[in-house]
Design a protein that fits this description.
Elements (H helix, E strand, L loop, with lengths): L3 H14 L2 E7 L4 H13 L2 E8 L2 H14 L4 E6 L5 H14 L5 E4 L17 H22 L6 E5 L21 H22 L4 E5 L8 H6 L1 H11 L6 H13 L31 E4 L9 H9 L2 H17 L3
Parallel strand pairs: 1-2, 1-4, 2-3, 4-5, 5-6, 6-7
Helix pairs in contact: 1-9, 2-3, 2-9, 4-5, 5-6, 6-11
Organism: Aspergillus ellipticus CBS 707.79
GO molecular function: oxidoreductase activity
Keywords: Oxidoreductase
Length: 329
């Protein structure tokens, strides 16, 4: 488990080991995504960053801050409400028109939904943000990731280690929905998808991360400014600042500790001791991690799902959902 000082040491090496890096941040205009993009912009000499988000005002503000921190970088805002899969496709097409490769896909969309809300495409809104749109970005951008020569990586920030029981006939949460169930399903499906994708694409590493409790605007947006301020004060002793969260996530996105299955232990730019993947293999390509970069895999649960072929079944459900909603494949 790397300490914060070790995280900073690894991040500091990026200036010499990774002179350039092309990244896409989905959910990059607030919270964890914004914090991580800012840390990357400071650490990489010539970064290229695409920020995907709904709010153009927030996007413009962050672009200005990124340019001020690194005048040698290239920073773009892609406006999209990614609760709709058709908008995901449009955003990906915009990115593909600009780039011939990407090195990092970092996704942190979602909110604390206390009630079920359906999108015009017939899917549960927050389930799309937490799972389907992330997997659609991944699927669409796989060719660009595979074109990377710099240890490509996909990071989905949600609930690594928070998996639980799910049923194949309720993967879309259309049969039964509760707040707790929606949280469990999203976390579990991300972990199962990460395992499937790492096996199918051994030249890319896939991380599912639990970010810990981070002092972001999300809690205020959920419970209100007054209650959010009180909770912020009470949680300060055991929560992370935005800056520390960004530093830790930059480490996860670039450290040699989480290589692809094909590489198995080569350098990704930053330093770090290679850890066990979610399948138990050191350097296995799929990683379920806590905020501190430690392996958080529930080994017995994931082995049971693996034995019942849930990684492949969940991914097939995902592809079927894309086909049904988009009717273009």
């Amino acid at each position: 488990m790397p300490s914060l000082s070790e995280v900073r040491q690894s991040n500091a090496t990026l200036a010499s080991t990774r002179p350039d890096l092309t990244a896409v941040f989905v959910g990059g205009t607030s919270g964890i995504g914004e914090a991580t993009a800012k840390q990357l912009a400071k650490a990489i000499p010539k970064p290229t960053i695409h920020l995907v988000g709904r709010n153009p005002e927030s996007g413009s503000r962050i672009l200005e801050e990124l340019r001020a921190s690194n005048p040698n970088g290239t920073f773009r805002f892609v406006q999209a409400d990614v609760s709709l899969l058709q908008n995901v496709d449009t955003a990906c097409a915009e990115i593909k028109a600009k780039e011939d490769h990407i090195d990092l896909l970092f996704m942190s969309t979602g909110h604390l939904a206390m009630s079920k809300k359906e999108t015009p495409e017939g899917l549960e809104n927050n389930h799309v943000l937490r799972y389907y749109s992330r997997m659609r970005f991944t699927q669409n951008l796989l060719p660009l990731l595979q074109a990377s020569r710099n240890s490509p990586r996909v990071v989905t920030v949600l609930g690594g280690g928070q998996e639980g029981t799910i049923e194949l006939d309720n993967l879309a949460l259309d049969k039964s929905w509760t707040f707790l169930k929606s949280t469990t399903y999203a976390a579990t499906m991300n972990s199962l998808a990460v395992e499937h994708l790492a096996a199918a694409h051994p030249d890319i590493s896939f991380l599912h991360v639990f970010p810990g409790l981070v002092r972001t605007p999300l809690i205020n947006a959920t419970v209100g400014n007054l209650a959010g301020s009180v909770l912020g004060v009470l949680s300060r002793p055991f929560s992370l600042s935005m800056e520390e969260s960004g530093e830790r996530n930059l480490f996860l996105a670039t450290s040699a500790a989480y290589p692809s299955a094909k590489v198995g232990g080569g350098s990704a730019g930053g330093s770090g001791t290679v850890v066990a993947s979610s399948t138990g293999k050191v350097g296995g390509g799929s990683y379920i991690l806590g905020y501190d970069g430690k392996n958080a895999t529930q080994e017995k649960l994931m082995a049971d799902y693996r034995g019942r072929e849930f990684p492949a079944k969940v991914w097939q459900h995902t592809l079927d959902t894309f086909q049904r909603v988009l009717r273009s494949e």
